[in-house]
From TrEMBL:
Gene3D superfamilies: 6.10.250.1150, NAD(P)-binding Rossmann-like Domain. GO terms for molecular function: (3S)-3-hydroxyacyl-CoA dehydrogenase (NAD+) activity; NAD+ binding. SUPFAM superfamilies: NAD(P)-binding Rossmann-fold domains. This is Hydroxyacyl-CoA dehydrogenase. One of its GO terms (biological process) is fatty acid beta-oxidation. It comes from the Eukaryota. Residues 29-140 form the 3-hydroxyacyl-CoA dehydrogenase NAD binding domain. The keyword NAD applies. Keywords: NAD.
Length: 145
């Protein structure tokens, strides 16, 4: 997985605008749908690169497990990265964790984010159904053009 350290910048163009007049949108708020290993990893990377993240899954139990896994991973990183300064490592972990919230209702989250990442089961029908449902609630800038 490639780790991105700069703010994500996405170029968005719609059918009503020419590609020459596309606008840039800075991604600050990210929703990650799916709290499994991949979704938790994506949420962790987004949080450590300065984004606020909402991690979404079906149950609070899955989300608690995901958040625990993220914290353990961050602590391992901090132990290596901040070996000479454990206090800075604790701050790194705390800052990243404070950037991640959880929710079990994807529809209530997608209207207020700049980017939605899906990391759910690898079944096309399930993914298609998810996006059909979320498209009803998503901001116009997120909708498939």
């Amino acid at each position: 997985m490639a780790f991105v350290t700069r703010q994500f910048v996405r170029t968005v163009s719609s059918a009503s605008t020419a590609s020459a007049s596309a606008k840039k949108i800075v991604i600050k708020h990210v929703a990650v749908i799916g709290g499994g290993l991949m979704g938790a990893g994506i949420a962790q990377v987004a949080a450590t690169t300065g984004h606020t993240v909402v991690l979404v899954d079906q149950t609070e139990d899955i989300l608690a497990k995901s958040k625990k896994g993220i914290e353990e991973s961050l602590r391992r990183i901090a132990k290596k990265k901040f070996a000479e300064n454990p206090k800075a490592g604790d701050e790194f972990v705390g800052k990243a964790l404070s950037s991640i919230s959880t929710n079990t209702d994807a529809a209530s989250v997608v209207h207020s984010v700049d980017l939605v990442v899906e990391a759910i089961v690898e079944k096309l029908e399930v993914k298609t159904e998810l996006f059909k449902r979320l498209d009803k609630f998503a901001a116009e800038s997120l909708k498939y053009q």
